[in-house]
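Standup notes
- DV: blocked on the single-chain target, sequence here:
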Amino acid sequence: FVFLFAVCIGSFLNVCIYRMGREQSIVKPASHCPSCKHPIRWHDNIPLISYILLRGRCRDCRQPISFRYFLVELLTGVLFLMLYRRFGLHVPFFVFAIFVSGLIIPTFVDIDFQIIPDEISVGGLVVGLAASIIFPQVQHMPTHLLGLRASLLGIVVGGGTLWILGLAGDFIFKKESMGGGDIKLLAMVGSF
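- DV (later): unblocked, structure below
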């Protein structure tokens, strides 16, 4: 069940990866072939299975569909299963499932476009901070206030360390050495 749920999430992550890098809406239009733009039928949009049955090609134009779609779905399924084995279906599982999803999207967007969407890094930072306050056990803390403190410390250490390294790199190389997206992403990681 967890794996099936996760590959469906992975399918949505693929939408985010494809569209965020192109600054398109993740809501509209419905899923479609990147080549011919034909809407994907529901039975051609079953995670993992449809890719295998269609042999990685669009049913309509027969153009290849990137293996990345299959890979992201499988990766999401495997990572969620690992989280399930560690935490069961308890609060940390759901918090870290959001965290893992928040790492998968910018990883693949960054590979293609060398950008890290603020919607993920800044939004994820807020989610990590809120989760740490509401569920302090995620930070291994007994109280909400200590959960907040741990998350804030993670933000400062994660983002701050990379910011300082970026400043040093700028000084040494006499040009920008670290993008702001990387700093915000590591701050997000720290918030969790």
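- Follow-up: The first helix runs from residue 2 to 20.
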